[in-house]
Amino acid sequence: MPGTSVRSPLGNRFRSVAGQVFVLQVAIVVLLAAGALLALVLQSRHDIDREARNRSVYVAQTFAHSPGLQAALKSPDPSAVLQPLTEETRKAAGVDFIVVMNTDGIRYTHPKPDRIGKRFVGTIEPSLAGQVHTESVQGPLGREIQAVVPVTAPDGKVIALVSAGLTVKSVSGVVDRQLPVILLAIAIGLALATGGTALISRRLRRQTHGLGTQEMTRMYEHHDAVLHAVREGVVITDGDGRLLLANDEAKRLLGLPEDIEGRRVGAVPGLDHRMADLLLSGRVATDEVLESGDRLLVVNQRATHPGGGPGGAVATIRDSTDMRVLTSRADTARRRLKLLYDAGVDIGTSLDVVRTAEELAAVAVPRFADYVTVDLADPVLDGDEPGPGADMRRTAVSGISPDHPLYPRGRLIDFLPSTPQARGYGTGKAELVPDLADAPGWHAQDPPRTRAIVAYGIHSLIAAPLTARGVVLGVVNFWRSREQPFDEDELSLAEELVARAAVNMDNARRYTREHALAETLQRSLLPRALPEQNAVDVAHFYLPAQSGVGGDWFDVIPLSGSRVALVVGDVVGHGLHAAATMGRLRTAVHNFSSLDLPPDEILARLDDLVQRIDRDGDGDEPNNGVLGATCLYAVYDPVTQRCTMARAGHLPPLVVAPDGTTEIVELPAGPPLGLGGMPFETAELHLAEGSQLVLYTDGLVEQRSRDIGEGLELLRTALSHPARDPEESCRAVLDILLPARPADDVALLVARTRTLGPDRVAQWDVPFEPSAVATVRSTAARQLDAWDLGELAFATELILSELVTNALRHGSAPVAVRLLYDRTLTCEVRDGSSTAPHLRYAATTDEGGRGLFLVAQLSEHWGTRYTPDGKIIWAEQPLPGTPGTKEPSLAAFPGLDLDLDTDDLDLEAH
């Protein structure tokens, strides 16, 4: 409005000459008033302090010269006489305390009776010298102003002291009561002076409008520039919603008439209602985009008085219509780059084909497509390369709604050649279908379902093949239902997105193939079924690592004499190499076990083998060596109930007694296989019948979340229960220790011991003379009759005759025979010689050499086992009625004399 200043009144007032004069005059008046107030307060405090000191001296001197004081001091109890007098005098004199004390400063009186008898707080030396002394101290009543005067005898000697005084609080109270009167007087004077100054300043401001000549010139130039030259709209409103100013650019952008100043915003013709609402609200707006007609306006609005004062706001307006297209393109490019970046981060987090497909589908919904389906060639899921024309299996489905009519996950789809999926799979190029309603080739695939898809609202499709390293793995389908149909630019984006995912998909496929091959190899090398034996009852468990199969293995190996070997081992590493190395070591253990060697010798030979493997792998194939391996080998004898074991860097076994007591076997660790240079040590322990021997690999007890000691303690706790069979113990251990996703192979072997009782064992010593052979035959025949094994008597007598004869001729004393009645009938002949027999094929003209050959023909298995004091030659025969057995044939011995009733049988002589 004309004559209305657009500048802040407060700013004008203090920038103008009148305002500066007003401020200067007010400042002078305030300083004068403050100085007067300070002087009055200081003078008043000084006078009151002086008055307090004088009053204290007068009261103290008056009481010191009061009649009867010296008589009271000489009484037996001065406090009883003086305390009432001092309190009465204190109240009458208007002081806060009167204290009478002796020359040592010990009080006789005090307003607080509990202070009587205590030392006076203050300086008494000047008063003891006959002087009157005043001071300010921190006493029992607070900050005190006190006077101390002497009480003198007629001879002038100081016999006591009297102190009187006031507290600072009492003195300050007097000043505080006077202060309002002083302030009121100063305020009246300040108001009168300020009022006069204001009248003068107002008169001066009215004459100059608060501006000087130069400032008024500059103000006009700025105002003219804002109105006509600035190419940004400016609109100023007051607190009542009236337009105070709208420059030329604002009128052009908003389509406003010329004469709008002074009108209410809501009544301005042609003003868009959204813009009007923003201007009337007066709220803060920063780069807020509004449409006004065919223009896109960016509005910023701030209050004209953010700190208070009259209401109002100023708004600036920019035309960004020309930037809309560029902004849209930049935003689209940004979204696409963000999508590709997220795809690189979120796709391929695991080497799993299905998981990778699901991650690809999840990344694209809903930022690029409303629905995404991933169809992979069926062989890809097994890690194989697909061939042409392979059927597709829907591997992943993701969308904005779960009730879509697309093929479900897991469906095996045979796409027709007319479909974009089949064409893309065949050519390796992406296919764009902008309008699914007009796609007859696609409709031919499944007319009812395609009609349901179109009816559902899905209108466009991009089928992009997953191509990696020249192999098409499948097709990714991008479906859209809400936004505009896909265009050529989005087709290139889909191709790039799928190309990035295809590499991860192929890596997952290759890993799946290698993992499957390694797992197949490993399982083929592990025992499929445990052999039959009666020494132990066994439960076992094996689980390969999630990250790739490793080299863990276990074995149960029947040995001669009804014994059994329990083996567990671990090859460091994962993959095909570890599995193949495990197979080589397991085969070697089987071969070495057939030699009936002690556990420490088995491990020594295995150590030599690993060293040879490492030396063979030093050439161009560095992975042919063994990176590290551990092994535990235990032999249990059910006849003696002794268990002998040795380990090469492996974790120690646990023994669970029949009552549930669990102990970790103190077994020398020994170096891992392949290091060489150090011998392996054995440990031997007696196992009660029903004890459980637990062997395992480190994948069971060692995890990142806990150390191996904690794992062993958990294993001990899981096993510490009586009367469990091996299967129950195995399940209990797995329930507690088996990780959800094991990082290493897990192998567990639980063996419960059994015994071969005395009724199944027959043994006797053999005199070292040829005539003992007949005695052995007859004794063995009687024992077989007792076991109801008479059918085996003939063959057994032949076997024992040959073995005993060999021991007597070629061995040394002592000689002993043992028969074991288990799953087979075992004949053992022990002697003190370590000479090794061997099988010969004698010619028809030879006089000897057929003995062991005869033993081999009559027995199922035979062999030699060395002991610390000699050797044992053994032979096993199947029991009568055992499936798959046949009668022994003696056709190879036409000249054999079968008259076993003679006293001496010399098989070598025939």
TrEMBL record:
<keyword id="KW-0418">Kinase</keyword>
<keyword id="KW-0067">ATP-binding</keyword>
<keyword id="KW-0547">Nucleotide-binding</keyword>
<dbReference type="InterPro" id="IPR052016">
    <property type="entry name" value="Bact_Sigma-Reg"/>
</dbReference>
<keyword id="KW-0472">Membrane</keyword>
<dbReference type="Pfam" id="PF01590">
    <property type="entry name" value="GAF"/>
</dbReference>
<keyword id="KW-1003">Cell membrane</keyword>
<dbReference type="InterPro" id="IPR003594">
    <property type="entry name" value="HATPase_dom"/>
</dbReference>
<dbReference type="InterPro" id="IPR001932">
    <property type="entry name" value="PPM-type_phosphatase-like_dom"/>
</dbReference>
<keyword id="KW-0902">Two-component regulatory system</keyword>
<dbReference type="InterPro" id="IPR033463">
    <property type="entry name" value="sCache_3"/>
</dbReference>
<keyword id="KW-0378">Hydrolase</keyword>
<dbReference type="InterPro" id="IPR029016">
    <property type="entry name" value="GAF-like_dom_sf"/>
</dbReference>
<dbReference type="GO" id="GO:0016301">
    <property type="term" value="F:kinase activity"/>
</dbReference>
<dbReference type="GO" id="GO:0005524">
    <property type="term" value="F:ATP binding"/>
</dbReference>
<feature type="domain" description="PAS">
    <location>
        <begin position="219"/>
        <end position="259"/>
    </location>
</feature>
<dbReference type="Pfam" id="PF07228">
    <property type="entry name" value="SpoIIE"/>
</dbReference>
<keyword id="KW-0597">Phosphoprotein</keyword>
<dbReference type="InterPro" id="IPR035965">
    <property type="entry name" value="PAS-like_dom_sf"/>
</dbReference>
<dbReference type="Pfam" id="PF13581">
    <property type="entry name" value="HATPase_c_2"/>
</dbReference>
<dbReference type="Pfam" id="PF17203">
    <property type="entry name" value="sCache_3_2"/>
</dbReference>
<dbReference type="Pfam" id="PF13188">
    <property type="entry name" value="PAS_8"/>
</dbReference>
<feature type="transmembrane region" description="Helical">
    <location>
        <begin position="20"/>
        <end position="42"/>
    </location>
</feature>
<dbReference type="InterPro" id="IPR000014">
    <property type="entry name" value="PAS"/>
</dbReference>
<keyword id="KW-0808">Transferase</keyword>
<dbReference type="InterPro" id="IPR003018">
    <property type="entry name" value="GAF"/>
</dbReference>
<dbReference type="InterPro" id="IPR036890">
    <property type="entry name" value="HATPase_C_sf"/>
</dbReference>
<dbReference type="GO" id="GO:0016791">
    <property type="term" value="F:phosphatase activity"/>
</dbReference>
<dbReference type="GO" id="GO:0005886">
    <property type="term" value="C:plasma membrane"/>
</dbReference>
<dbReference type="GO" id="GO:0000160">
    <property type="term" value="P:phosphorelay signal transduction system"/>
</dbReference>
<protein>
    <submittedName>
        <fullName>GAF domain-containing protein</fullName>
    </submittedName>
</protein>
<keyword id="KW-0812">Transmembrane</keyword>
<dbReference type="InterPro" id="IPR029151">
    <property type="entry name" value="Sensor-like_sf"/>
</dbReference>
<keyword id="KW-1133">Transmembrane helix</keyword>
<feature type="transmembrane region" description="Helical">
    <location>
        <begin position="179"/>
        <end position="200"/>
    </location>
</feature>
<dbReference type="InterPro" id="IPR036457">
    <property type="entry name" value="PPM-type-like_dom_sf"/>
</dbReference>
